[in-house]
Fold:
Amino acid sequence: MEEESGEELGLDRSTPKDFHFYHMDLYDSEDRLHLFPEENTRMRKVVQAEMANESRGAGDGKAQRDLQEEVDELVHLYGLEDDHELGDEFVDENIPRTGVSEYPPYMMKRRDPAREQRDWRLSGEAAEAEDLGFGGWGSAGQCQDLREAYRYTHGRASEEYECYVIPEEEDEEEAADVFCVTCKTPIRAFQKVFDEHKEHEVIPLNEALESAKDEIHKNMYKLEKQIIEMENFANHLEEVFITVEENFGKQEQNFESHYNEILETLAQKYEEKIQALGEKKKEKLEALYGQLVSCGENLDTCKELMETIEEMCHEEKVDFIKDAVAMADRLGKFLKTKTDVEISAQPEFEDQTLDFSDVEQLMGSINTIPATGSSVRVCWSLYSDDTVESYQLSYRPVQDSSPGTDQAEFTVTVKETYCSVTNLVPNTQYEFWVTAHNRAGPSPSSERAVYMTAPSPPIIKTKEIRSCEEAVLICWESGNLNPVDSYTVELTQAESPEASGVTESVVGIPTCESVVQLQPGRSYIIYVRALNMGGPSVRSEPATVHTIGSYFRLNKDTCHPWLTISEDGLTAVRSERRTPARELSPSDTHFTRCVAVMGNLIPVRGHHYWEVEVDEHLDYRVGVAFADVRKQEDLGANCLSWCMRHTFASSRHKYEFLHNRTTPDIRITVPPKKIGILLDYEHSKLSFFNVDLSQHLYTFSCQLHEFVHPCFSLEKPGCLKVHNGISMPKHVTFY
Amino acid sequence: MALKQISSNKCFGGLQKVFEHDSVELNCKMKFAVYLPPKAETGKCPALYWLSGLTCTEQNFISKSGYHQSASEHGLVVIAPDTSPHCFLIGGCNIKGEDESWDFGTGAGFYVDATEDPWKTNYRMYSYVTEELPQLINANFPVDPQRMSIFGHSMGGHGALICALKNPGKYKSVSAFAPICNPVLCPWGKKAFSGYLGTDQSKWKAYDATHLVKSYPGSQLDILIDQGKDDQFLLDGQLLPDNFIAACTEKKIPVVFRLQEGYDHSYYFIATFITDHIRHHAKYLNA
Structure:
């Protein structure tokens, strides 16, 4: 049949080869085979028309000439393009149109579908050994031609295509190119027919490759997910690790100070008792000594008398009688005085009772941590054996510089060697010194010890909290006049307060703000503490954060003088009256030309979604801008801002999407009342939606090398309201 | 109805097939292209119908528009019938005047059901597209009959708009590339309608998108239209989108109309924005 058609059309044999050379498209050779029949149909039409025209004997020489030109043109055209849509070629207007009109309708022969069918069989199972020897088209030869054509037209090194020069049949015998699913091995095509794979299921090798690749990709995806999970878990563990360390530190400190207290108290008691014993000893010894002395005196007197009497015995009779009478008197008197031979002091000491009750009390109070900003526990000890009746503890705040004002000095009198001082000013250094007092007077004062009171708790600025689904930015006031060392942020999840023994802490924050990573779709309660040498403050008042959508407020520091921002930071109003422009400071944080205000979006990448409620007749601009956009220009007039602009004039709504002063030409038939804005850092896109209709309006592609903030501008009096904390609606997720 | 597969090619994980069958409405053999995304192997997918423009067959769209990747990702079955059926040439269909102009007759069915002789036997593309083809597709392919959308280019854009406007609720969404929005007032439309529908202009309005919008009672439609600014036919006054937009603004039918700088009427223009259109439909079909 092909031969028939070949004879009919002299052009047939030659033109296909031409087509090979001029076809510079991406189709496989199989597809190309498909297209030939149609083109040949058209070609046939051309020639048929030629013949028909001749047979009609069209006397219109002009028509013939035109036709010839047209045929040439068509050959040229069909050679270059497989383009059937004549609409495309209107630029070369006349030729195709009038060309077609000349052709009588041509009867499609039945064999065309048949031929198409055969061609399809060829293209389908090229691997099959059948039909390779198929005549008419001489497919093997055809394919060879095609491959050579590829070499020529694509101008590649022939080395790459060496293998294609070998005829098809031999190729297939050497390479495995189908896959036996049953045996899970690649086999050669003919094996399917002849070998043990006869009964097995076979699929083309490409398919098998594809499915194997898919499997691997799936597993890779799972592995990637797992990697991310484990990394997150490791980070979490680190945080908990730090918290454990901190808590340990606190406990250690506390235990140490209490233990020291107890030891000191015990030492004190020991001293006291020893002292008392010593005194007792002295008393006894003194008493005994006294006795000893009087004994000695007695002895002396006795001995003296004895000597006198002995002397007397050696005297003359007359003297002896005189002295003897005197001595007898003396002796008599002496012997009358009683000699006290009772020992005045007993050698034994009483048993000492030890009173440890206050030590016990101290041991019982070991669990309280004395960490407040307004009290301090001071201890001291005595290094000598002196008697002490009381101690006087004096203290005053430490002066930094100015010697002028003398800070008030306070004094406390105690009997113990420790004292809790209260009513102190937090976060302040105090110096303490002690003097001991007894009957004789005060001792010289001790060296001055410096203690620092713990700071007051900070105050979270709840109105300035900004958050998104993955993080929150909190800022706070220090709560202390003087600087502290650092801050700690503590957060717990709000849903399960009992179960949440887990409090995450972020420690060592140097400034009064912090960005904390969170999980999406949860609620958190956040506290802040201040920390200095004296220890941590108590927790601040809590703040609550919900990680749904993005939260931000309009920044009053940026708003144009003609705009008023509501208390909750979500509504901007431009009133009818024009307030006279205030004298603004040179720092250009305020918009001066565009009556606009910026929102404070959390500086975290990812995606953010918010909505703006507007009036249909309001002239406004809504969009985003970099923080350092020039405030003297309109939104969208420079390359640092993008916005959607609506103007309503003469009952017509006009919409523009401005960036760098340019806008695409877009018409919107239903004016939106609520505009959804999606900011996607990941894909560098900013999209606008009509929320009520779930209709997508426009998307900018924007290079966001830094963080941007939402911007809103009112070009006429009116108001617009921002809605926050909204989860991205489903229709938005398509963008 | 017996379907005969003409071709099948794997593309982006799915299959681009072409089938042929005997059409009842058109009284001849019809071809259509259907793309089955990978998702169709495991379940029913929504269906998206593409209507081609003047002189096009099912081949233009599937070869040149580059829609496969997007259709594969969103899991949509895309059907494109042959708008210039060779069958218009068979069956005694040696209709005089059929091949006289490329914008009337073969390849220019205008998606109407012709009422005039000699066209009324074969030129019933409106019924084919809205009735016969969907029934055929629903019966033979893994599609969800409740989720269907339609779009097209030029004359096909006109076809998509009128099919959606004349059948409120049948299509979940509609979009168009450089559609003929107001055929009653443009040279193409006047020529086609007078030939197919006769001289009674009231019958013409039933196939004119701008007129249909004015009396559209039905459910919310979200229409996306892309138009090349350098399109010769726009400048020739054949397309008339302003009229359509004005009517939609009046009746509050949501339309986003984008005039694309530098683009013309060709398939290069279609290929540039086809992804946006497929995503537009996926939003409603996959909701």
About this structure: Chain B touches chain A through 47 residues (CB under 8 Å). The CA atoms of residues 118 and 186 of chain B lie 23 Å apart. The first helix of chain B runs from residue 58 to 64.
